[in-house]
Amino acid sequence: MLVSLRPYALRCDHRATPLGIDEAAPLLSWRLASAHRGDAPLAYRVRVADRAEDLDEGGQPLWDTGRIEDPDAIGAVYAGPALKSRTRYHWRVAVWPAERTDPTGPTAEGGSAAAVEATSWFETAFRGADEWRASWIGHDPRPIPVMDAPTEGERALDDHGLAPCPTLRRAFTGPAALRARLYVSARGLYEVRLNGTRVGDAELAPGWTDYTRRVQYQTYDVTELVRDGENVLAATIADGWWSGFVGFEPRRAGAHYGAFPQFLAELHIDHADGRTTTIVTDDTWRTHTGEIRHADLLMGECHDLRHAADGWDLPGFDDTDWSPALITDTGHRLLVASVDEPVRATTALRPRSITRVPHGNGGVTADGGHDTHIVDFGQNLAGRVRLRVAGLAPGARVVVRHAEALDETGRLYTANLRTAAATDVLIGDGREHLVFEPRFTYHGFRFVEISGVPRLYDSDVVAVALHSDTPWSGAFDCSDPEIRRLHDCVVWGQRSNFVSVPTDCPQRDERLGWLADAQVFLPTAALNADVAAFFTKWLRDIEDARTPEGGFTNVAPRLIGVADEGAPGWGDAGVIIPWHLYRTYDDPRFLSRALPAMRAWIGLIHRHNPDLIWRRHVGPHFSDWLAPGVPTPREVIATAYFAHSTRLTASAAEVLGLPEVAREYHRLAADIRTAFSERFVTTDKNAEGDPTVRIAGDTQTGYLVALAFGLLPEDATGPAAQRLAELIEKAGPALQTGFLGVALAAPVLDAYGRADLAHALLRRTDVPSWLFPLRHGATTIWERWDGWTPGTGFRAPSMNSFNHYALGSIGEWLYRGVAGLDQSPDSTGYRKLLIRPRPGELGHASAGYESARGTVTVRWERHDQTLGLRVQVPPGASAEVHVPTDDHGSVRESGAVPVDGEHLTLLATIPATDTASGHSVYRVGSGVYRFTASYPSRPTYPSRPTGGYPTAPVASAGPRRAPSPAASLAGSHEEDTP
Ligand code: BGC
Fold first, then answer.
1. Which of 19, 22, 193 is nearest to 540 (CA)?
2. Which CATH number applies to 344-468?
3. 267-316: per-residue pLDDT in tens?
4. Residue 509, ligand 1, Cβ within 6 A
5. How far is the CA of 260 from the centre of ligand 1 (A)?
6. pTM over 0.85
7. Phi, psi at residue 343, to the nearest 5°?
8. Mind listing the pLDDT tens digit for each residue in 212-246?
9. Which of 569, 634, 721, 866 is the most buried (most CB within 10 A)?
């Protein structure tokens, strides 16, 4: 029998086949696909077993939910017998389709369709810290020799006081493995090798946490790498976030968490004869230092090949002159299995142009005479360069410096990196055919300056992008090339800044997990990618960072030197993020884990602000950060966030089945709303007798927070929205909002019938606007609307990042508004879709999204006077589809007049207003629907020049002259117009 409904994309705690979990009750989830209209699940059954065959009929699974009727279910939390350590578990989901009445689809025999199954697995690591046997080991830092003094003629090499990276090795003999697992961590960063082969592809592992609270470890399957006879397990470790430079406290290298890097590993080998071998880090390991003379996330990395010990990671190497490893301690209490995707090198970009700067032209020549080269990769990114060098004389250097932009002389503009040296160095030993790629650092850059190589060809160098490898889940497209590029910029901002934690920027000496930046960007991020696992990890960082009084902080992981006490909109991320993740992924554990901290946060603000106006304990009150124009009164923003967080806390309690708690917070939220109105809202009537509303300060952000967070009495919302629109129109139309206000602007305007104004903001090309930076060469979102302007050049370098995702929060509205792919306010996990395109003056737009439930797609296009809208709704979901039209009678679905039936019902017809077209609103079930309707003709977008932006990395034909600074930001208009 043909069955079309099927489960796919099986996940364990939001990851596909995770190796090495330590969660006692993981969520086993699936998505649903079907080719047929109206397909929906009726029931599911999950079985878990430690032998695959026990999943089959007649087997003995450890856990079997039995058949559970729940048409909404897309996952089940494991509730079987306690999971054992270091065990692979197989699991299977069976989904029964609801009976189908659609004659076009296959029907089940005998009226009840058979279940369709899918199978996956997960594997546990150590279930308890007491199971670890390994000791933390390192290279005794005292005898590490300092860097050799530079020789005559060489530019002094700044090692920033950093020590060489220790190498560690342990030889052992044994038979080959039936199964081998390596459990590994570092205080610092590690790269492990087994018999000369690199283990895994994780970069910057074990990732950044507050190491005083939690240290992550990773698990690798190394079965294939263990061989018969002598084996060598080897590692290089580096300072990383543990003992390197972190954030903007340059004096604090080595002072945040620890003084020198340490390593921890257990290799468990099961042999065919039933014996096991366990190799753990202890004082039988040997240590030395190798060619990596220093490696630091901010400063960069130096490889001196004169210190390379070939074969050090292979059997047979003589390590007698190495020292025994230093055992630092045997603490395992803080160890946790990592729960997110590792950072990986995912993309390599070829140069877009290479410009040769002749020696003697003021160029820095690190090798006593060669020209330097400026490479433009055409894309701002986070990562590093992989460089092929033909050969280097002993002591000769290649220096790679990084920057986001060029200055007016065509040289690297590095002032905005502040103290981040972002310089990588390779020192030769006479060898030929070298490939240089740093391993324990990353930089935010588009340009690099390479000195020390006589010639540089396109094929010699690539930029390697690094980021947490969250699976991409969304796609957006539209007819306006600049808006398409804006979406690309937003995605690249995400790619560059999700690096173990969501950072503000990847280039300067900061790169911190700022809570507000992540809060405003999350709705966009969660459409672009599946960030469930990434944020599961970061929510733990937020939890770890909490102040002794229970407050959320401004950055997580918490860092010495950064004001702790959470500011309004920053600390509130501790409430807002779990709520949004719950809604996106339909996983209430985001709420149950966070609820105590949410309550503590609200309690703290309430305690210090009994009159419900939040003005005390506001931390550093960043207000509406970087808003141009008149500042919004701080109390307005703070109190609005207080109300919003309180209401979300109430909703979380409701979801978790705690009605008493919910009531308490709903009551408080209502009181805060009243206090907000009494204190900040004035109502009046204008000359025509229409009601007017003013919010203290009369700023755009004031109205935005009040409307977005539902703080106004019903009859005040219309006039408030009108005032907001007036303010925006008066300003340009333009925004005068900062990080907090920007995120709310388009959604609020849209919600109050002014999608036209949201479109106008989107189309704007002067400062402040999203397209201004694009017109001036941006390939990622800038921290400031005016980070560089033709008149004044660069803004003050003390805070001017060209890769900051916060203002990229508009990405959400591209999906939800422009394309129209959204879920209803009361929906979770995209169970109830809201498809409501806002065409504006665009010719077409489309969005695809891999939701927690399955694939959702929306595509609309306009031809002449007709709009076509194609919608794909996953099984078990329904959608409210708003077909934009002023003529309800013109609507067709799949070519026919829609008739209310099982899969489609007309809900409403909404008349046009003077700012928006009308809508015919239908409820549809799962499947694909193709609507057409007449649509009022509006001017289409004027076609715009694309400004020489590289749509794909282009290899340049050869060396070029240095582009002008404007061109460096503007994408070298005159040089590279395609
Ligand atoms: C960061 C921001 C952050 C802010 C706090 C800046 O230095 O780059 O993105 O949110 O500080 O106001």
1. 22
2. 2.60.120.260
3. 999 999 999 999 999 999 999 999 999 999 999 999 999 999 999 999 99
4. no
5. 29
6. yes
7. -70, 135
8. 999 999 999 999 999 999 999 999 999 999 999 99
9. 569
